[in-house]
Amino acid sequence: MQETSQPIQLDVNAYLQRIGYDGPLATSAQTLARLQECHLHTVPYENFDILHKIPLSLEIPDLYEKIVIRNRGGYCFELNALFSWLLRELGFPVTDYFARFWRDEPNLPPKRRHHVLKVETEGKFYLCDVGVGGIVPRKPIEMVEGLVQTQGNEGYKLEKVPEFGWMLYEKKKEQWREIFSFTEEPQLAKDYIMASFWCENAPESIFTKEAMAAIRTKDGRNSVSGKEFRIFIGEQVHAFSPSSKEEYKQALQTYFGIVLPDEAYHFF
Question: Is pTM, for the whole model, over 0.85?
Fold first, then answer.
């Protein structure tokens, strides 16, 4: 978190400009879908502050300063918290939930360490999430059990399962696989502090091990894993590892719009 001498002025229009949204602001399903899609294409998922041992703040002014003013990204507890604030400012009813992230989890069942949103519009409820590094729905998922929802070449559905509530599935190679689950217990902002602290500091947390970044693009997506960049365009992928800190810095700015101070690259 960067210290500032003046209180942060929260500006919805500046946030909308940050995510490249210039459409209507009616509290409609269409507006909600476009807001989420714009967010995923402009605000990266990333953990560089965690690697640099900069304590995260989940306070809205601090998140706004980091993501909107400094053009950074974050992870679920940051991104979905600020997106939740934006939606509420625009007039959408929003409920915050805790989720268990099942995809790629070696020790099932997973702990609750993911933040997701339920948003109401036009008499329906939608699951919204702008805080995942892997492939997730680019548009909100209507909360109807068993309804298959196709987004481009991706397929998703929600089912209710014993013990874990709603489960979001993705279709991969003609099989349905779990992404995350959540129960409908509303959470307060303070409820995420302990989980976020664990993600920042626990030796076994994936966020403390190596650099992670991801962002959607019009042609696919970009990602970082450690020192390797992967640029996905359709079914093709171009992978490369910068040979110097300067090349890494340039690639990070080119593919994610992220600019970090020199001392943040100690992991290189």
Answer: yes
